[in-house]
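Lab notebook, bench 4. Still working through the backlog of constructs that have no structural model yet. Next entry is a single chain of 213 residues. Request: give me the structure tokens for it.
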Amino acid sequence: VLRSQSQAEYSPKNIGHFGLNLRRYAHFTSPIRRYSDLIVHRGLIAALGLGPGGLTQQEADRLEEVAALISATERRAMAAERDTVDRLIAAYLAERVNDTFDARISGVTKAGLFVQLPQYGADGFIPVSTLGGDYYIYDETARSLYGERTGRGYQLADRVEVRLVEIAPMAGAMRFEMLTDPKPLPGSRRSFHKAKGRAHASQSRVGPRGRRR
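Model written out:
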């Protein structure tokens, strides 16, 4: 759910809080203390006249710049955290190559499927070129890959079974093989005659094709 939403960013412009139905809202992360919290605390000290330590006018004039800086810093910290977790999980599963796992499709692109192993919190990729039996087409609206000939395929949030075929611990990367057969996808099925009429054209397209297993 969080990944489907726009990432929040710090700003001196008070636009309220949609979820809380507030017209005015100030950032806080109590009991954690981030730099943004200190800015809010010092702003309150200055606004309420609570004594020394409040924001000066010069500092208040630079809040746009400060907000952009701490937003960028937070993104770098989150990226570093994800990279570290990915590498540690990959190292943990390094001896499990060729094992099978229950997974959930967490992302769909033209290039293939991203899957997550709920039991381990691991993420990996299934290239579309390894999906056998059909030429797979990406449907951005439905977040799915479906076979041009059969109309069967895979879509976001599907539960599937996968095999770990390759792992690179230092890169935190894992490649999987799909073991679950594609399912019928409503609205994606193409008639046999249309598929047959496009067979020669589809063979000349630039893009990966899977082999029937």
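Notes after review: The mean pLDDT is 86. Residues 64 and 88 are 37 Å apart (CA to CA). Flag for follow-up if needed.
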